[in-house]
User: What shape does this take?
Amino acid sequence: MALNILIAEDNDFTALQYNRILEKCGHKVIVTKDGEECLQRYKDEKKKNENKMFGKSPFDVVVLDQSMPKRTGKEVANEILKTTPNQRIIFASAYALGGENETTEDFKENVEFLQKPFSLTKLVRQIGN
Assistant: This one.
C-alpha cells in the first residue's frame, strides 16, 4: 500500500537515500531540510486537504531527525501532535530524546524511534508496520 510520507532531514545525502528507497517502494515522499520547513509543509497539506479529510492526518507517517536547524524534531512533533494527536511519527535520530516532562509522552502510542545508524531496509520495514 502506497503511503504519504513527510520527512525532515537536514543531511542532503541521508534525505536523498530515504527518498529513493521509499519512492522505489511506491510511496509518495516529501522531503524538507529543517524543522521549520517541515512544519510549514505539514500545515499547508493539512489546510489543502481539510475538506476531504476532516480530522485526519495529511500524511500516513512523518519521519523526523531530532537535531535540525531552526526547530528540533521534538519541537516539530509536539506542534504536529497538538493539532493532530493521531499522527504517526518516527524519530530517525542518533540522539536520545529522553528527559523530564516530555510533551510527546502524552502521545507515545503514535511516536516511534529508529536509532541511527540504521539500514534503509529497516526504515522501510518500520514505515510499513
About this structure: The chain is about 35% helix and 20% strand. The mean pLDDT is 83.
